[in-house]
Amino acid sequence: MKKSSQTSVIRRMYSGFVVMVALFVLTIVLMLDGTNRIHNQLTTVTTDALPLVSISNKVSVKLLAADKTFKDFLTSQDPAAMKTYEADFHKATKEFASARQELVAVAESNPELTNYINALTALEQRYFAEAQVAMQNYRTQMLAGDERQQSARRFQRLQAELSIGMKEYINEQDNMAVKMMAKNFFVKLKETETITSDALATDDISSIETAIKANKRSVNHLANAFRSLTTLLSGLKDSFGKSINQYTLDIGKKGGVLDQHYEYIEAKTRLYNNIATLTKEVNQAMSILEQFNQQATNQMDQAIQTADSTYNQGITKAVGIGIIVILLAISIGWYLARSVRRPLVSMLKTLESLTDGDMTQRTERSQFIEFNKLSHHINTLAGNLQQILSQLSQASEDLTKVAAENQSTTALAKQRLNDQREQTVSVATAMTEMEHSVTDVSQSAQNTMERVHEVERASATGREVMSKNINIAHQLSTRLDDSVTAVSDLQQMSSNIGSILDVIRNIADQTNLLALNAAIEAARAGDQGRGFAVVADEVRVLAKRTTDSTSEIESMIQNLQSSSGQAMEMMQSCVTEMDNSINQASDANSAMEEIQAIIIEISQMSSQIAQSAEEQRTTTADIARSLEDISHIADTNYTAMEEVAEASSMLDTLATEQNQLVHKFKL
């Protein structure tokens, strides 16, 4: 009976949540429906209104771009630039037509825009046709303007030529009749010049036409007056006949300056009319395109109003359903809380007793299946805890005994490790001192070896210097021998020069004797031999100079022979001393070689000593490091043993505390 009366609180919770979820789903469905309707309105805006605005703006931009290109054409006077602008205008025409076709395609869904489409198409044809006519009129105006300027300059030149040059030509004549007739001609000339200049300075078509008519009447008077003058003055026609013909053409005939000015003003007027028409067409086109924008704006406003209405309806429904869900949730929560609170209070009392240490308390059964299972599990947990705490009490007593024994054993091991650590530190200190001593020995041996190497290098350098000195002495000895030979040759050559000087002295004596004989013969010849006597006297003086110079050279050669003999004796003495020096240097070199061999042997022995000392230092350092490692290990073991002792002491304390805690529970 009790089992059949039990119900599930979980099922009641599920039922309540199912109802709440159903209401939430209904709310979501209503919101999605509103969102979908808003999306449809936005789709209408993006697919109908926005493309219409975008394409109409594009058409406006293309039209304005074409109009700008047209105006650039009208402001340019460079033929190449005009040709470029005309090509750009044709391109802009095609782009406008393409944009208009896009606008027609977009506006098909709006029948109320059909009339505007037709009006825009007709305006396109009118605008671009009128623009072509305007560009042609602009070319005509430019051509007429250029011709007008040339003709105006020509007219001014002709007028100056006739009014000044022709007047001077006639004034130079003595014929009074010609001068009287010319006066009437120049009055007509001045009249036509004034009328023509006034007409060229105005843009009024009627004034220009009046000037042309007046000049046509004056042309005949000028021609008749000129012919009358040429009959009296035949040379006048040859000088000014062509100028008169051109002047009459300019002022009143077809192709003259007034006629060209008239065509220029007409072309300018037509161009202004074209520009005014095109401006009107552009304004009308912008008004038509504004209608497209207005239609798109109306569609967007309608879609936005519909979306706002849908949004407000969705908010109202969502708020109503939300209030219902909140009230239902409060009701379900209150019912579930009341169903759950009673069994929970009973369980909490039992758990409080268990928390206070009374392991004998148990929970009662509940009418709900879940709380009944929970009570069973709590009772089972309390029984298991009661059994575990009984076993834990026994284990705590055993752990206390083991911790006491472990603490005494740890104290003994700690004492022995302390003794080992102190002995290891002593040995490590001794090995460190020994390492320093061996390092000093190794350093001394290394310094000795370096000094031996320095002595070895110095002896090698001395032996090289000695060898160079011996070689230089040998070279010097060889050069002294060569110098002795050269001095001997010099002495021999001096002797040869002395014999040559004897020959020269004999020749000088013979020459002196011949000069004396020549002087005697010249004295015998009297006046005829006076010139020969002078020559003989000069020869005698020359012979005397030769004798004196030979004596001086002989004295110098004798001094040279004496000096070369002394030099040869000194050089021979130097050769002897040089030989002695070479022998001594050779002996010194041999001694240096023996010293170098002994030093090399000492160097090798020093290297062996240094190497042995270094090996001993390395071995001692390794032993010292090993002892330091052993000391560190001993310190580590000692620290670890202290930690073990502390852990044993803590374990004893924890075992005591655990035993005290277990006894707090009522078993």
From TrEMBL:
Family to which the UniProt record says this protein belongs: Belongs to the methyl-accepting chemotaxis (MCP) protein family.
One cellular component (GO) term of this entry: membrane
Record has Cell division as a keyword: no
Species assigned in the record: Photobacterium leiognathi lrivu.4.1
InterPro entries according to UniProt: Chemotax_Me-accpt_rcpt, HAMP_dom, MCPsignal_dom
Transmembrane regions listed in the UniProt entry: 12-32, 318-337
CDD domains with a match to the protein in the record: MCP_signal
Keywords recorded for this protein, A-Z: Coiled coil, Membrane, Transducer, Transmembrane, Transmembrane helix
Compartment annotation: Membrane
Main location, first listed in the record: membrane
SMART domains for this protein: MA (SM00283)
Keyword Membrane: yes
Domain HAMP: 338-390
Domain Methyl-accepting transducer: 395-631
Residue runs in coiled coils: 275-313
Protein's name in the database: Methyl-accepting chemotaxis protein
An MF annotation (GO) of this entry: transmembrane signaling receptor activity
GO biological process: chemotaxis; signal transduction
